[in-house]
Specification:
Layout (H helix, E strand, L loop, with lengths): L3 E12 L2 E13 L4 E5 L6 H9 L6 E9 L2 E2 L12 E4 L3 H4 L6 H11 L5 H14 L6 H4 L8 H13 L5 E5 L7 H18 L2 E6 L2 H7 L2 E6 L2 E7 H6 L4 H8 L40 H5 L5 E3 L2 E3 L2 H4 L9
Parallel strand pairs: 3-8, 3-9, 6-7, 7-8
Antiparallel strand pairs: 1-2, 1-4, 4-5, 9-10, 10-12, 11-12
Helix pairs in contact: 3-4, 3-6, 4-6, 6-7
């Protein structure tokens, strides 16, 4: 049984012209100890999907779909699973932390309010959490403020807060974006160790394919509010089927292959939700576009042990990198 199951997630935002769809029919399953990487360009709907599952979207957002946690239905906007069932790490640790509270108090807060611990119990648990995430487990460190810590230390504090109530599912939204490369690797290693030790499921939201290679078991490629390809990490990275997936992989630099000259860029830009015209959202940027692509939006279909939203890929046509 999956830890988390989402069926047909739809997220729309209220505008002057009615509701504008931003996430359009996302379905996923996450099992114990598994990492699902959700990857795509900025604006594809990755973070909105994460915030919707956590119940952190503003009141102008409408969330629809069916949601199950450990087999039991739940309503994300109510936020009843936040902290102990589902927990989240955000992009920028400096903006995630309260600058006028000590880091010890910030980690203790969910323990006091959700776990109903006494102050003494919470203080002891805070030191245990600091030790678990690789921070000094001393009362003196607990009294520090966020501005007194390095970026990597701040992110470890954020991770400690996310783990405080022992969640079964951890959502990490670009957790290494604001960190330098060396610290990024340390944080990713830490997350893998914590996941293995706690047997959590993890959703890793990222645009960085190197992060996908490091942590993911399965990959969901997102474009214009939809998953366009879902499969195992090896399948998606080594033999991508969707034109967009191939374009993403062709556009990244690498230190392991022969120089190829100018990196391949994806022509054009992703469509905004108001520009979707009923055809395939990727067709203006795809070199393999056919007339049917302009008129009919493809559905996500199972194909060779993966799911792909492209009839050209399913027909077995050689999919070249667009742009």
């Amino acid at each position: 049984m999956p830890l988390l199951q989402v069926e047909n997630l739809q997220v729309s935002f209220r505008t002057h012209n009615g509701f504008l769809p931003v996430v359009r029919g996302v379905s996923l399953q996450l099992h114990e100890g598994e990492t699902l990487a959700v990857v795509g360009e900025s604006g594809s709907g990755k973070s909105v999907t994460s915030l919707a599952l956590m119940g952190l979207l503003p009141s102008k957002a409408r969330v629809d779909g069916s949601f199950y946690f450990q087999g039991e239905p739940f309503e994300p906007p109510q936020g009843k699973l936040r902290g102990h069932g589902l927990s989240m790490i955000f992009q920028n640790p400096m903006s995630s932390l309260n600058p006028v509270m000590t880091v010890g108090k910030q980690v203790a807060e969910p323990l006091l309010f959700h776990q109903k611990m006494t102050v003494r119990e919470a203080d002891k648990k805070v030191l245990e959490l600091f030790h678990e995430v690789g921070l000094p487990s001393t009362p003196a460190f607990s009294q520090r403020y966020p501005h007194q810590l390095s970026g990597g230390m701040r992110q470890r504090v954020v991770i400690a807060i996310a783990l405080a109530c022992a969640p079964s599912v951890l959502i990490a939204d670009e957790p290494t974006t604001a960190l330098d490369v060396t610290i990024q690797a340390q944080i990713l290693d830490l997350l893998k160790q914590l996941q293995s030790h706690r047997k959590m499921g993890m959703i890793m939201v990222t645009h960085d394919m190197s992060v996908v290679e490091t942590v993911a078991h399965r990959v969901a490629v997102m474009y214009a509010g939809q998953f366009v390809e879902v499969g195992s990490c090896g399948q998606v990275l080594q033999s991508p089927a969707h034109p967009y997936t191939r374009a993403l992989l062709a556009s990244r630099p690498t230190l392991t292959r022969e120089p190829v000259g100018v990196l391949k860029a994806i022509s054009g830009r992703p469509p905004s939700p108001s520009e979707l015209d009923g055809g395939c959202p990727f067709h203006p940027r795809c070199s393999l576009v056919e007339e049917s692509c302009r008129k009919e939006e493809p559905v996500l279909q199972e194909w060779e042990d993966r799911a792909v939203r492209c009839p050209i890929a399913k027909r077995g046509t050689t999919v070249a990198s667009p742009g």
